[in-house]
TrEMBL record:
PANTHER family: FAD-DEPENDENT OXIDOREDUCTASE 2 FAD BINDING DOMAIN-CONTAINING PROTEIN, FUMARATE REDUCTASE. It comes from Pseudoduganella rivuli. Pfam families: FAD_binding_2. This is FAD-dependent tricarballylate dehydrogenase TcuA. One of its GO terms (molecular function) is oxidoreductase activity. The gene is tcuA. Gene3D superfamilies: FAD/NAD(P)-binding domain (3.50.50.60), Succinate dehydrogenase/fumarate reductase flavoprotein, catalytic domain (3.90.700.10). Residues 3-431 form the FAD-dependent oxidoreductase 2 FAD-binding domain. It comes from the Bacteria. The keyword Oxidoreductase applies. Keywords: FAD, Flavoprotein, Oxidoreductase. Its cofactor is FAD. Transmembrane segments: none annotated.
Amino acid sequence: MVDVLVIGGGNAALCAALMAREAGASVLMLEASPRTWRGGNSQHTRNLRCMHEAPQDVLVDAYPEEEYWQDLLKVTGGMTNEKLARLVIRASSTCRDWMRRHGVRFQPPLSGALHVARTNAFFMGGGKALVNAYYRSAERLGVQIRYATPVASLELDDGRFVAAFTADGQLIPAKSCVLAAGGFESNRDWLRDAWGQNERGEWPSDNFLIRGTRFNEGILLKHMISAGADAIGDPTQAHMVAIDARAPLYDGGICTRIDCVSLGIVVNRDGARFHDEGEDFWPKRYAIWGRLVARQPGQIAYSIIDQKAIGRFMPPVFPGVTASSLPELALKLGLPQEAFVKTMADYNAACQPNDFDHTVLDHCHTQDLMPPKTHWARPIDTPPFHGYALRPGITFTYLGLKVNEEAAVHFNGCPSPNLFVAGEMMAGNVLGQGYTAGVGMSIGTAFGRIAGTQAAKAATQKANHAAA
């Protein structure tokens, strides 16, 4: 019998497996995907939000605990467990040396990501390089890994883990277990159940795209909730971004994101604006736009910029629709021409002259316009004009399992002695809503390491108890 069973194959699962193995436990990892697609959503990441009191290699200036906490508090609207959030924040300041020991390398941010040069450490080679480095380290340390092995259910005994049942019926016992199998974002039926129909009779989730892995179907999460594990979070809350409407249904990753929203305006299919595009820096607010687009007719919107914005944002993979005039752009995008041109004229007239600076919260704003644009408001008047169709893109869902500081799964308020959870399956404890760049990797790294340590400890205690 193995000491620690880790279910999942992304960042949190790998951190748990490595920590458990370093503690001397024998470890088996079960990854639902084939080897080619290993790594879950972590393969699509690129950075980690890090607390630091002074400049550190690729991190400039300082990003102290209280500022990190206030940033998290703002984006979640207070829907967060402060004790667990601060645990994550503090852990983010000490994890990078450990990550380096397992082969992870860091690099300065690219020019289009300078807003997070102070707060986020970027992985050299991105998330795929990170998970590959962890897998190499795990294999070197003797972690057993089985691919294409989804887990359907667990055998539990009054909150204690006994064994896991794979989808093909295999029974795998272990002395302790870490759950890190992700959310339910690629389960189309569950998304339909969660989001339901809107007042227009539409099923909004049918128009959602999945930025991450197709293997996060939430089967184990649903089983755990049915088995009486304490849950936390709203099933409609998620890390949801406005992405290119031409993106693939699964695994589009970061390259499908449209990052020019704050430099122009966004309209719905009726040609109307519906939210302040300039309320804060893009890394703090980009993850609200998926939900905003999801509430629009047909779950589609259009980001509109002019030539002045080019070169000030990370360019998307696919070129936008271009036109020499705004009426022509409306025609090419399939928008009602009269309504769109009026929206543009009203916006341009409302822009107040000031010094534009997209690197700070500048004083370029609109006046007497609803919704307002509070920063970076400049007339869109310099051709060629560019338009990008947007769809909601889900990264991961926030419904998960309630935990304590030791990452233990709870049943009726009581922590399990040998069942732990990390990553997206518990991120809702910290992220009740909203998102800020890199915090998902901070949560997965912190709780993955905690869960692995605690699982190894629980396995040792069980072995000692059996010997006595």
